[in-house]
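User: I'm preparing a small set of examples for a lab meeting where we compare how different chains pack in three dimensions. I only have the primary sequence for this one, and I'd like the structure in C-alpha cell form so I can line it up with the others. Please keep the answer compact; I'll paste it straight into my notes.
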Amino acid sequence: MAAPRQKKKRQARQRPAGVPLLPRSTIPGVVWPPLPPSSALQVLALLQQLKESQWWNPEQLREHQLRQLELLFAHAHASAPYYRQSLSDAGYQPGQSLAEDAFSRLPLLTRGTVQTHREQLLSTAIPPQHGRVHTVSTAGSTGSPVVVSKTQLMALIGHALILREHEWHGRDLAAKMAVIRFVRDPSQARPPDGMHQEGWDALSHQAYATGPVALLDIQTPIEVQLQWLQRERPDYLMTYPSNLHALLEHMASKGRRLKGLKGVHTISEILGDATRELVREVLGVPLTDSYSNQEAGLLASQCPDCSNYHVQAESVLLEVLDEEGKPCSPGETGRVLITDLHNFAMPLLRYETGDLAEVGEPCSGGRGLPTLRRILGRVRNMLTLPDGSQIYPRLGTKHFAAVAGVAISQIQVVQKSLEKIELKMVCGRLSVDQEREISETLCAALGHPFDVDVVYVDKIPRGPGGKFEDFLSEL
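Assistant: Understood. Below is the C-alpha cell output for the 475-residue chain.
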C-alpha cells in the first residue's frame, strides 16, 4: 500500500501551481502539442530526466556518477597533460572500471594549481558535440582570479537544473522578475531606470514563455533601489543576501512595503538567519537560496520539503571533507570539493573551492539527492585565534547598533594579526564609552580579547563581483 501513496505524492510535486506546464511552440499554427526549438528540446529532455533522478536513492545516484566519471577520467587522462600524470600517480589505468577508492586517491586540485597550471588542465580534444567553449572568471577577491573554460553542454544542463529549482518552489515562469546584482558592463542596468529584457534567461525563454526581467546594478544606493522596485512592482526579487538585508532594514525604518511580491531568491553570498527573519518580518513571502560558483555553476538548491540544500548530483560530485581528508557525516563541517561531471573542456577533478559547509541529513521529502545543512563561507575568511584554532564569525549591524544605541548602516571586521582587529563602521562618531562597549561586545562574539581599532568610514565598498563580506582576514 505504501508504493501507490509514494507515487501519487511524487506526481503532485512535479506539477506545482503557477508553473506553466506547456512549453513554448515556435511552429506557426501549432500551440499544442508545442514544438520548441532544438536547443529548448534538449533542455526539456534534461528536465524530464532530472524530475525522475531526484527520487533515486543515494546508491543509484552514486552508481551513475561513477559511470560518468569513468568517461571523464578517460578523457582527462588522454587529452589534459596535467591529469595524464596525476591520474597515473593515483593508480588509474585507462579502460578500467572506476572504484570509490581510486577516485578518493586522486590528489586535491587547489585554486593555486588551477591558476598556475591552467594550460596543462585544458583538454586538447574537446568533443565537438559539447558545443562552443567560453571562459568564466572568479571574482579574485584575494588576488588573481581563477579562469575556467566551459562548454555549451554545461550551460544546457545548468538551465535544466535551474528550471527544476523553479518547479520545486512553484514559481510562475510567466511572472515578472526583478534582479539586483553585479553588472560587469558599467553602461548597463544603471539607476534610476535599470535595464529591461524579455524572458528570465535565453534558454529558459526558448522552452517556456517566461516573463519580463528588470535588472539593476547592485552598486545603486538602497533608497534608489527601493524606489525602483516600487515602480517595477515585480512578482519575484533576486539579489545578494547582504543587499537584501540592507534593503529590508531600510524598508522597516521607513515603514514602506513592496506590493504584489510573491517570493525572494538569494544568490552569490552566504544567507544568514538574521536576513531570513527580516524577510518574514518585513515581506512575509517565501525566501529561497541557492549555492553556486563560477567554476561549476549551480551546486545546491534549497529543498521545497526540508530546510536543507540539495546537491545537484546529476551535474556535480560534491565532497565535504574533515581536517584528515575523510568524508564528513551529517552535522559535521568540512571543506567543499567539487568534480564537475560534464566539463570536458577543462576537467576539474576534486577541486577545492575554498568553501566550508555542513553536511545535512537525508531529505524528509524522499529525494535521494545529497544534502547540505548550511554553507558557511570561505575558509580563507575564518577568524584565527592566538592558539591557532579557527572559527567562522557571525556578525551583523543590528546587534552592534543595539549596543551603541545609534544607527549603523554597515560594519566590516578585518583581522590584521593574531591580536589586532579593525572594526570599520558607517555611522556617526561614537563616544569613548560607546566605542569601548562595542569593542567588548565584538570580542565576546569572537571569543578573545582582541585589540580593537574602531575606524569610521563613509562607505564600505563591495568586493570584486559585487559581493560584500562582513569579515575579512589579512593573515
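A couple of notes for your slides: DSSP finds 14 helices and 20 strands in the chain. Residues 1-20 have pLDDT under 50 and may be disordered.

User: Perfect, thanks.
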